[in-house]
Amino acid sequence: MKRSNRLANLPPYPFARWAARVGVARQEGIDVIHLDIGSPDMPPEDPVIDALCESAHQPDVHGYPGYRGIPALREAVAEYYGRRFGVELDPDNQVVPLLGSKEGIVNMALACLDTGDVALVPDPGYAPYTMGTAMAGAEVCTFPLLAENDFLPDLAAIPVDARDRAKLMWLNYPNNPTGATASLEFLAQALDFCRQHSILLCHDAPYCDVTYDGYVAPSVLQIPGAEEVAVEFNSLSKTSNMAGWRIGMAVGDPEALAALAQVKSNVDSGIFRPLQEAAVQALAVTDDWLAARNAIYRERIGVILAALQEVGMAATRPRATLYVWAQVPPGWESEPFASDLLDQTGVAIAPGPFFGPSGEGYVRISVTAPTERVREAMGRLDRFMRSTSQ
Ligand SMILES: Cc1ncc(COP(=O)(O)O)c(C=O)c1O
Prior knowledge:
7-stranded mixed sheet; globular
């Protein structure tokens, strides 16, 4: 079969190549410690699992679940946004449940981009912003996230031509992969920029509840009038340790959400009802549960930062996300460093350029392995660095 031009024109997805490489290391009998992907290693709360099981035993929940999600789920999302951010959402037209936020991110591109349009995308950034744009046949214009700007974009530096053709701008704070955060003031500036240039602001916020040291991440919808210009993507993958369950939501601008829902109604047939009922339970997550779970991640971050300091790799402590964004040691490039580390020690970390060219010089280390495994990985890193500097 000849693949469609659409697929042939997609930029390469470096993580696929990397996963194959990690698979080979495994087959060779290497004990691989995965600090390269952000898949939470702990389970959701028991009541969430109980809600799924109880619902799945009911006889009338196994048919097609409907396109827009059950009212109880949309109401639970609205209730969560009210409690967590003080944002009022209309559950009927400002909430679209998703099969994970990745699905919504790609389908949003199909909903609002045509050939000749531009999407403004962060570099480094989460790959589906680029992939979705490419699948829609539109152009990507990246903007760099640089350490000297605290990994926030310089909106004034976006080229005028791209800005004028842009229909969509992706922002993601707390940020993958840099771990950076954005203030509400910065989000308000970005919103003004988008309003001025008729661009839909898509803010991707799946890490908003993976936070440390008292940091509280804002929602773009806290800005008055944001619901006219912005959609926020969110997810239970990281907030509630439900990455494999595939459930998320898009909220905000009703017009943009109607377009997204139109695409979805032609692509998927909704979310298994018991999963929606479990998500209702998950959205009632308490601050205590989040604090206890985040304390475990924070301890792992401490283990990683101490080891990085020992081997002379610079990194700042993230206030949120599952990632430490670390500079590679002097004299190394990102991918050779991560590759040699994998081959010689079995520790898998993500080379920064996998997220875009501005990631060169960095690696992303995720905290989603049990604490003892993180300690073991950092011991191996230490031995690797000693052996390479001899
Ligand atoms: C920035 C960002 N957005 C979206 C997602 C996708 O999350 P979901 O599991 O909801 O599809 C991820 C997952 O790693 C992510 O890092």
